[in-house]
Design goal:
The protein folds into three domains: 55 residues; 201 residues, Endonuclease, Chain A, CATH 3.30.870; 165 residues, Endonuclease, Chain A, CATH 3.30.870. The chain has 17 helices and 19 strands. The chain starts with a helix and ends in a 6-residue tail after the last helix.
Length: 474
């Protein structure tokens, strides 16, 4: 009897596995991602199936955020310019094409005459954020992947409570999984004081409909519709005081002017998703002050978009470069398209420099990232490993003109699974600032040569190759 039951269970499991495999194949995903899931299903019986049902289903074609609602917010009159105004602006034609593409693939409006400040030191970043919040008169919109229940996060909590009691409308979005350490008391104190704090995609016990794999990785702040922030930090002590890895190095931009409208639009789209309230009041889009001549596009991507907009923007920008591309990223696990663009640009004579942490907060990511370095080294890319702590900056600077700063890593999770935001900035001053920061960071780096990479121990190569199998899933 037991033998018959065992045979039935095995037959049923094989049927489920074959059915799941057929679904994966019919989805026509990236082959690497499909193969990774097939490996998991075959070599980790039962557990692999459970992991696929939780993490592996593709909701991109089943829009998580209503496109109709996004369009209604995007129709809100704001300070965006008509792109045709840029045709005679003197901007390099390839960078003009980048601007047009980002408008087409993500509705990323272009905003001119902004004031842009770049911050790379944790103390300066939080001082600027806290000062802006203290000066808020009408509203505070804040959205982060991680709010830790620690010293800096509690300082922020007290400040938000204070501003709410002063009559400032405070809206806060936190990722349910990323901010899992937030206590009930932390959230209760905010809500009791009138702060509207909402989780993004809270965990539901529905295995077949689980969206746990889709996280909100964005980092946004908007104050009164006139000051905006975005970048790579989260609200956590490690960005100020460091961790076992040492000091954390990150990049954040503070924006004043019309470009804040782009950040505001994105926050309100996310707010509609978590609260189901559509906010389009014109007080959230005040007439901006004009500052320096430049252009900003706030580019979003995620499971709610038709295109992998940030990934496409990065590829387009790299291929448009004539002189150099400097890349900061904490996790380097590029898909074939990004990897190919980096290699082609380097082979074409563009100077490509890539900076990654010598040791990140994810051992598996480090192993996987190392497996990708051989191809880019062979193409002529210079690779630098940051040794002064944790390099968490997500910033790219190109040809003293284009800067890309935001939340997206160079990996498949950021390109396809996470809700991300990057500011694409067309401005010489900002680019030169980021270039100088990159060069300063090189003092704390060890350059990796192709010879060193090729001479790794065989055991190390095996570990890296195994980790790479899971890179589309990380």
């Amino acid at each position: 009897m037991h033998d018959i039951l065992r045979i039935i269970l095995y037959a049923f499991y094989i049927y489920i596995i074959l059915s799941t495999i057929s679904v994966i194949l019919l989805e026509n995903r990236n082959p690497h991602k499909s193969i990774s899931w097939l490996v998991v299903l075959i070599f980790i019986p039962f557990v692999g199936l459970f992991l696929y049902l939780i993490f592996g289903q593709d909701y991109r074609k089943r829009k998580i955020i209503s496109q109709k609602s996004i369009q209604r917010i995007n129709m809100r009159p704001c300070a965006a310019i008509d792109l045709k105004e840029l045709d005679d602006s003197g901007i390099d034609v390839d960078f003009l094409k980048l601007i047009y593409m980002l408008k087409a693939n993500s509705e990323a409006d272009a905003y001119t005459h902004n004031k842009i400040d770049v911050f790379a030191v944790g103390e300066n970043i939080f001082d600027s954020i806290f000062e802006a919040i203290r000066n808020a008169k009408n509203h505070i919109h804040i959205e982060f992947f991680i709010f830790e229940d620690d010293k800096i996060s509690n300082e922020l909590r007290k400040l938000l409570i204070q501003k709410s009691k002063e009559g400032v409308r405070v809206r806060m979005i936190y990722d349910y999984i990323g901010s899992y350490k937030l206590s009930k008391n932390y959230l209760r104190s905010l809500r009791t004081a009138g702060v509207h704090a909402k989780p993004f995609l809270p965990l539901r016990l529905r295995v077949r409909r689980s969206k746990i794999n889709y996280r909100n990785h964005r980092k946004l702040i908007v104050i009164d519709g006139v000051v905006g922030f975005t970048g790579g930090i989260n609200i956590a002590d490690r960005y100020l005081y460091g961790s076992s890895l040492g000091k954390w190095r990150d990049t954040v931009v503070r924006i004043e002017g019309a470009g804040v409208h782009g950040i505001q639009k994105l926050f309100l789209i996310d707010w509609f998703f978590v609260e189901r309230k559509l906010i389009t009041d014109e007080k959230y889009f005040p007439t901006p002050i004009k500052f320096s001549k430049n252009i900003i596009q706030t580019v979003s991507s995620g499971p709610d978009t038709d295109w992998q907009a940030i990934m496409q923007g990065i590829c387009n920008a790299i291929m448009a470069a004539n002189h150099y591309v400097y890349i900061h990223t904490p996790y380097f696990m590029p898909n074939e398209l990004v990897n190919g663009c980096i290699q082609m640009a380097a082979l074409s004579g563009t100077e490509i420099r890539l900076m990654i942490p010598e040791k990140s907060d994810s051992r598996l990511s480090d192993l996987s990232a190392s497996s990708y370095l051989g191809d880019v080294l062979e193409a002529g890319v210079r690779v630098f490993k940051y040794q002064a702590g944790m390099m968490h900056s997500k910033a790219i600077v190109i040809d003293d003109f284009v800067s890309i700063v935001g939340s997206s890593n160079i990996d498949e999770r950021s390109f396809t699974l996470h809700f991300e935001v990057n500011a694409f900035i067309y401005d010489e001053k900002t680019a030169l600032h980021l270039k100088r920061l990159f060069i300063d960071d090189m003092v704390h780096c060890k350059e990796l040569t192709l010879e060193e990479w090729n001479n790794r121990q065989r055991r190390q190569k095996m570990k890296e190759s195994f980790a790479r199998l899971f890179s589309p899933l990380m």
